[in-house]
Structure prediction request, 327 residues.
Amino acid sequence: MSHQRGTFLIGLTLVVSAIFPTACSGEPGGEKVRIAVVPKGTAHDFWQSVHAGAKSAAVDLGVEIQWKGPQPEGDREAQIRLIETLANGSAKGLLLAPVDARALAAPVEQARRGGVPTVVFDSGLDGEAHVGFVATDNRKGGERAGEELGRLLNGRGKVVMLRYQEGSASTMAREEGFLAAIAVKYPDIEIVSSNQYAPSLEAARSKADALLLAHPDLDGVFCPNESTVHGFLSALDAAGKAGKVKFVGFDANPELLAGLERRHIDALVLQDPVGMGRRGLELLVKHLRGEEIPPVEHTAMHVATPDNREDPMIAALLEPDLSILDK
Prediction:
C-alpha cells in the first residue's frame, strides 16, 4: 500500500468514526446517533405500527429515534416547523412521511443543504432532495381495491369514494388507482361521488352521513385510509346500512377489524407499517454509513377479507405486535 493511499484510508476511517464510532452505535461522549422520525400524525394505529417498526430497527442498529408528529394530525404547517426544528437540532437524519408532497419539499431541501439527509416513507415527496423512498405501491393498492369492489358488485351499481386530504400523495395515488380500475374494468359501475374530502375521523363521519342521505340507493363504498374507513363505517352502522352496502377500505385498526369480522367491511387493503418503519430506518442508517441505497423500495401489501383474516400473514398485519413501544 502506498503512503498516500494509507493516509487517505486512515483519514476516511477517522471521518466515518466521527459519525459512527461503533458501527453507528453512538457519537463521541457515548451518545447514540439520533434520527428523527416524523409521521403525518401519531394518533392512528397505522402510525403506532410505524413507530414500533422504527423503534425495533433502532434497537438492532444501536441508534436512537426521536418520534415527533404534527399536532393536530395532518397539519402541514406544523410538520414544516417540526422538520425545520429537528434538522437544526441533534438529528443526523430524518425519516419523514410528508403531509403534503409539495409543501414539504423545501424544508427537506433545506435540511439536505445543512447536512441532514431524509428518507421519505408512506407518502411521496416532490423534488429530489430526499435520498430514498419506502412505501406501499399506493396506485396498485387503489387498483386492487377497485378490482375487489367491482367483483363484489358483479360489475354493476352505484359507488361513492370518500377522499382523504388534498396534497397527501399516498391517498391521492390510491384514489386515482381505484377510479382507473373501475373505469377500465367495470364500465357499468357508476361513481356517483368522488370529490368529497375528509381529513379527520370527525369529517369522515359527517361527509359519510351526507353522502348516504344524498344517495339512498348506494351499492358500494371505497375509502382510502384508516380514518375515512372508520368514519364511513360509523355512518353506515348508524344508518342501518352496514353489511348491506359493499365496503372496501385501506388500512386497519381494532374498529375496522371488528367491522371485517361482522362483515360490515368486505375487504381491507393492508399495508405493512411495521415493516415500513423498520425498512425506512435501516435505509437511512445505511445512507449515513456511506452505503448505497435504492431510490425507491415498495413494502408488502395484501387484501384482507372476512374469510382470510385468520391466515397468519393477514392476521399479523391486522393485529401487529406493538409491545416494543411499552419498553
